[in-house]
Amino acid sequence: MSDLKQHISSAFDRDLESIQAQIMKMGGLVEAAILDAAKSLETRDTELAEKVRAGDKVIDALEESLNDEAARVIALRAPAAMDLRVVLSVMRMSANLERIGDLAKNLAKRTSVLVELPQIGGTATSLRRMARDVELMLKDALDAYIQRDEKLALDVIQRDLDIDQMYNTLFREFLTFMLEDPRNITTCMHLHFIAKNIERMGDHVTSISEQVVFLVTGEKPDETRTKADRTSIDPALSTDFPVDEG
Amino acid sequence: MSDLKQHISSAFDRDLESIQAQIMKMGGLVEAAILDAAKSLETRDTELAEKVRAGDKVIDALEESLNDEAARVIALRAPAAMDLRVVLSVMRMSANLERIGDLAKNLAKRTSVLVELPQIGGTATSLRRMARDVELMLKDALDAYIQRDEKLALDVIQRDLDIDQMYNTLFREFLTFMLEDPRNITTCMHLHFIAKNIERMGDHVTSISEQVVFLVTGEKPDETRTKADRTSIDPALSTDFPVDEG
User: Fold this and answer.
1) Is the dihedral of CA B151, B153, B155, B161 positive or negative?
2) With 0-12 CB in 10 A as exposed, 13-18 as middle and 19+ as buried, what is B222?
3) What CATH code is assigned to B2-217?
4) Which residues of B132-157 are buried (b: 16+ CB within 10 A; e: fewer)?
5) Residue in B111, B102, B93 with CA at minimum distance from that of residue B57
């Protein structure tokens, strides 16, 4: 019986390894999509943007196969509580990764629209820097998962506040450009959406990091993390946008 | 053995019923949140907006308990493939519902900002109508789930195209108001975000409906559903916004 148990357990471990390899592969593709999408925006490279859009199908397919595999493992191995928690958290993480991939695709979609419009200041460069920071957060979140490193995961969650702050700053910039010259409005609306999309990527990375903390400690990280959103405190500051959640 | 099997099976059915009751309760709360948030915007009712914001905590708590319950059922009953599919789809649906709840909360958040700003035309009324349509879609998606009604679920997916179209129309309206008078810019940026949030609610309802189709048929609905998004076809139409996915 104990031999059988050990046999089952190591089969589960092999399955889990395969699932973890898949999630790291997916994570790598999503990281590349973030960087490429932001680069395509700054360099006005529609070919690269098209590559990101096409590549999203691969990410979606990986999520699907990962979910099938996870469901298969649950059905076949009937994992114990802690192991089940790992498999379920992988499913949630893959959903977050898939959504970040979608957001990168949306960013790339707007690139093909924006190349037809005039450029505005150094905003594309600021957006690329913001995207780069989110990509580094994602890299660390995935490392934190593999290493079961609660401290690193908490650090990533903290860094998302900087992303929110970057978003607020960019929003004010866009508003200034629009007020300065109405011909900037259409471009700024697109750029604003891109900033918002990158901010949302940060939220998904935060959610992945929260899964890591939950996995390691069995508890959710403090839910009352301060949102760098001042509009909900003082509505008069309405040039700041409420930072959306979810 | 067959008695034992039957015993296990009916215990599973009871568990599933309890989970389904929870998801319907959650769905009801989310429907109310959509309607109340949109009403608070149109009637500039900050008290109602505050109620929506506070109520989101209940929705979040329901999602959490639903996930715990689903994980418990999987661990305890080791459901067979088809039953497992039902439980996993409920977990995904609850994630969609939770996100719609977040979007309603975000809408309500902006209400408290917008009451400080001048009203613009009948846009709040249009937004409320759009929200009402999404709420009806959600109602039907949940009915489709309970009845395992593939046809109704496909109908809901189809209706999301109208929501995308409403969003495109509103976007053009906001742009006109902004070009007309730069003092409208801040208000229109907020209203535009609300329109986008409602459009995203529609996407989540679509995703719930797709889960229903998958449950009934074992296959995903045709993935190439036409997005009512013309910008990706003709970038010159850049007053239309690319309809984001995900």
Assistant:
1) negative
2) exposed
3) 1.20.58.220
4) ebbbebbebbbbbbeeebbebbbebb
5) B102
Q: B54-109, pLDDT tens digit by residue?
A: 999 999 999 999 988 998 888 888 888 788 888 988 999 999 999 999 999 999 99
Query: Tokens in use for A106?
Result: 């949306």
Placement of tokens 């360099």 in the chain:
A43
Owner of token pair 């978003």: A167
Alpha-carbon span A60 to A198, nearest angstrom: 19
Task: Name the nearest CA neighbour of A101 among B95, B98, B102, B245.
Answer: B245
Tens digit of each residue's pLDDT (9 = 90 or more) over B123-138: 999 999 999 999 999 9
Find the farthest-apart pair of alpha carbons in chain A and give their distance in angstroms, rounded: 77
Picking from B88, B92, B106, the nearest residue to A244 by CB comes out as B106
Please give the Cα distance from B146 to B133 (Å, whole number).
Answer: 20
| Residues A71, B85: C-beta atoms closer than 8 Å | yes
Q: CA dist B215 to B89, B158, B160, Å?
A: 8, 18, 20
What are the helix (H) ranges across chain B?
2-43, 46-77, 81-114, 123-147, 150-180, 185-217
Q: Which of A106, A178, A245 sits opposite B185 (nearest CB)?
A: A178
Question: Which residue in chain B has the smallest CA separation from A53?
Answer: B232
Query: Going residue by residue through chain A (246 aa), what tens digit of pLDDT does each one get?
Result: 445 555 556 888 899 999 999 999 999 999 999 999 999 999 999 999 999 999 999 999 999 999 889 988 888 888 888 888 889 889 999 999 999 999 999 999 999 899 999 888 889 999 999 999 999 999 999 999 999 999 999 999 999 999 999 999 999 999 899 989 988 999 999 999 999 999 999 999 999 999 999 999 888 776 534 444 433 333 333 444 455 554
- Considering only CB atoms, A112 lies closest to which of B112, B196, B235, namely B235
* A1 to A5, A8, A77, A83: CA distances (angstroms): 6, 10, 15, 20
Residue written as token pair 């820097």? A129
**ipTM value of the model?**
0.75
**Tokens of residue B243, six digits:** 């309809």
Domain boundaries, chain A: 2-217
CB B89 within 8 A of CB B138: no
Residue in this structure with the two tokens 């994570």, named with its chain if needed: A27
Chain A partners within 8 Å of B245 (Cβ): 102, 105-106
Nearest to A236 by CA among B113, B52, B197: B113
